[in-house]
Amino acid sequence: MPGRPGRSGGHNRIAPEVHVLRGTFRPTRHTLPSPAKSAEWVPTEPQLAGLHAAGRAFVARVLAEYVFTPMEGELVLETAQVCDRLAQLRRARAGADVALRLKLDRVEQGWCRQFATFTNALKVHR
Question: Domain segments of the chain: what residues?
């Protein structure tokens, strides 16, 4: 039985984002809205002032290669803090005795895990 005029679809339309989540998105039938452009993150001087040499070098390296949103920029700053802590641990380990060096190795492993977690969480855009 055919539909009634004026009542044949449209009232139960599903948003394209919902189709993506359900796995029913078809590019031939649906179009996704273009993502909103967000501002590019540039660190301020007060943000960089809290970093030491290793952290500043990390920020400089990633900004030379990638573009970040402001929220991702905060994650870059946290990762730079981890770089500073790792550099500090490695300097302390250089002149330590064997027992202290073993303790510092365990602490360093934790900071390395934290660094890997932060860098994996970054969504980079060229």
Answer: 39-121
